[in-house]
C-alpha cells in the first residue's frame, strides 16, 4: 500500500499537494521524504498546496509547522498555498509558528511568489 | 488510509507524479480521478511523470495506456516524462498504444513540450 505523498520537482522547486487528510504515519513519512528530497536535489524552494484539504488536526498541523521550519533550516524557502478557512483557524489557534512563510492563492501563484522571492 | 494519487493543477495543465508501484485499486482510482479532474477543471494538458518508477506490471501498463487515450478523448494532450528502460520495455512488449503521445526527460521539459504543443 502506498501511503506516501509524491514530491514533484519542477526546476529548482519542489511541489507537494496534500489533497486528503493525512494519518500520523503518512505525515511523518512526508516530513522525512521532503527533507531528504531537499537535500538530494538541492532545491531552494518548496510549494505546499493545501487547496483540497478541508480540515487539519492538531498533530498534522504541528508536523506541517515543523517541516516548514526544518525546510528553512536546510535553505529552502516555503510557500503555502490554498489554505482554507478551517485550516487557517486550526493553524493559528494551535499557535503554529509560520513566521516568514509566504502564502498564495493557488499552486501557480505560489510558484510565481517563490520565483520572485528567489530572484529568478 | 490514503491510496490515491494527488493531481496538481498548474495553469491549464494537470501534473501527476507516479513515484511508487501502484496496486490495481489505486491505478483504477487514479484513472477515475484524472478524468474527473480534466472534466472539472477544463485542463487541456496533462503531464504524467514516471521518473521514480523502476518497473511497471502489465495491469498498470494497460491502465496507463487507457487513461492516456481517455484523456485525449476528453480533449487533453498528454505528455509522459521520465520513462525508465524497464518501463519502456514493458509498455512496448505489451503493445500498449501510445500513438501521438509526446515524451520528455523530466517534468519541467514535459511542461515546456505541452505548452509549446498547446501554442502558448
Automatic annotation (TrEMBL), chains A, B:
PROSITE patterns: STAS. Pfam families: STAS. Residues 3-114 form the STAS domain. InterPro entries: Bact_StressResp_Reg, STAS_dom, STAS_dom_sf. PANTHER family: RSBT ANTAGONIST PROTEIN RSBS (PTHR33745:SF1), RSBT ANTAGONIST PROTEIN RSBS-RELATED (PTHR33745). This is RsbT antagonist protein RsbS. It comes from Metabacillus niabensis.
